[in-house]
Amino acid sequence: xxxxxxxxxxxxxxxxxxxxxxxxxxxxxxxxxxxxxxxxxxxxxxxxxxxxxxxxxxxxxxxxxxxxxxxxxxxxxxxxxxxxxxxxxxxxxxxxxxxxxxxxxxxxxxxxxxxxxxxxxxxxxxxxxxxxxxxxxxxxxxxxxxxxxxxxxxxxxxxxxxxxxxxxxxxxxxxxxxxxxxxxxxxxxxxxxxxxxxxxxxxxxxxxxxxxxxxxxxxxxxxxxxxxxxxxxxxxxxxxxxxxxxxxxxxxxxxxxxxxxxxxxxxxxxxxxxxxxxxxxxxxxxxxxxxxxx
Length: 294
What we know:
The chain is an alpha/beta fold. Helix content is 34%, strand content 23%.
């Protein structure tokens, strides 16, 4: 099983003709993703060949969905055009939009997030500023390398792209049902809690790894949710134990003020909810391996 993305997903790429869109479309195709077309209003009607596959470029998401049956879109659109691209996907009521773009203004993210809510949440948003989602052996929507792990019984939800890759590699002997990189911006679509519940509901996910980072209170809220709703074992890691107070670190959402949002406070909240928290990514992987192997 998998969450949000599986072997039946039909994927389009908004921004398929740009350098990043073309490069990662090739990688997604190479990892078995069923990409059925792309979107670029200025190149509508053209055909592009990527990895030996002829892909039609449509003028709109709505048109692409009608012609191909697409239910997932991956957005590789520059920051200043990304808001309109995501709103277009939401208005077309595509089931999942994965927003890879980094550097989208926060008020733009707030706008399309609010628009999704106001129109009934028919479109799940993953991101922005994220690596996407992979269900190994089934489909890959985004920029996560497909060759670092295989299918298995661990679910992974992470704010950090690079730590997603490291955790997948360290636990490659066990494998993953799905790995979701939710992004580290202050406003994102899918949250830790959304992914935790989806993994809880997935019969073939046996245990969950949750990776957080300093700043905000998402991890504390996830800890409360785990305590009340999640029965499967969860291990965690929080990036940023050595971050100086009051300084923005890495992702736009990672800022610490006083004791609020610190790695230590997040670790404490997670452990109080019964989550085993590693001091390093490797120690976290070791904790998960011990759980899975009984």
